[in-house]
Amino acid sequence: MSYPPPPGSPGPDPHNPYAPPQGGAPYGYPQQGAPGYGYPQAGMPAYPGGPMQQPFVSMPGQVVTARVLLFIAGSLWGLLAVVVLIAGLAANSMIRDVPVANSVGAGALGAALIGFVLCGGMATLHIVPASMFGKGAAGTRVTAIIGATLNTIVAMLTFFGSIGSDESSAGGSMVIALLWLATAVLTIIFCSMSQAGHWFNRPRY
Asked: Tens digits of per-residue pLDDT, 49-78?
C-alpha cells in the first residue's frame, strides 16, 4: 500500500496517478482556503447562531396588519373628536338662549373642548406612527405600542362600564367594547413580535 509523499516534498511522482497535483496539498489534508470545520462559510457569520439575518425587502404581514389597525383606530378617534366638538357647540347654542343657563352652556362647551383635545390626541397618537411605519425606527414602534396600550385601557373601561349599566343598549356597547379591545390587543401583539423588531431595527442605507 503506497502513501502520498509527506508535506514539503519536492513534488509528486509523475508515475503515480494518485499523487496530488504539483504544489497541492497531499491527500488527507484540506486544501488551502477551503472551508471546513472552524472556518466560516461564505455568507455565514463567524459566530454561532445560524445564517445572517437577511434584510427585509417589504414590510412583514404582521407589521402591515398593525399599521392598518392603527389607521382605523386613529380615524375613529378623529371622528369622535369632531362629533364631541359639534355636540358641545350645539348644546352651547341651545342653552345660551336661556338666561339662567349661561353657566351650564359654558360648562358644556368647556367639556366639549376638553373631549375634543383628548380624542384628537388619541387620533394623533395612532395615525402619526402608522404613517411612519415605512421609514420609522424603534421609536415609531414604541409610540405605536403606547397608543395601542392607551386604546386598550379605554376599551376595558368602556367594557366594564357597560357591564354595570342597566340600559337596554348595554349589550351592544359590550360587543363594541370587546371588538375595540381585541383590535387594540392585536395591535400590541403584532408590534411586539420579532418580525416587527427586525423591521424597525433593519439597516438603512
From this structure: 444 555 556 888 999 999 999 999 999 999
Check: pTM over 0.90? Answer yes or no. no
What's the pLDDT tens digit per position in 9-25? 555 555 655 555 555 55
Residues 69, 73, 76, 82: is their CA dihedral positive or negative? negative
Angle at the Cα of 186 from the Cα atoms of 184 and 190, rounded to 5 degrees: 125
Residue type, 122: M
Q: What is the DSSP letter of 115?
A: H
Contacts (Cβ under 8 Å, ≥6 apart) of 147: 70, 73, 122, 125, 126, 129
The number of C-alpha atoms within 13 Å of 54 and in the hemisphere containing its C-beta is 5
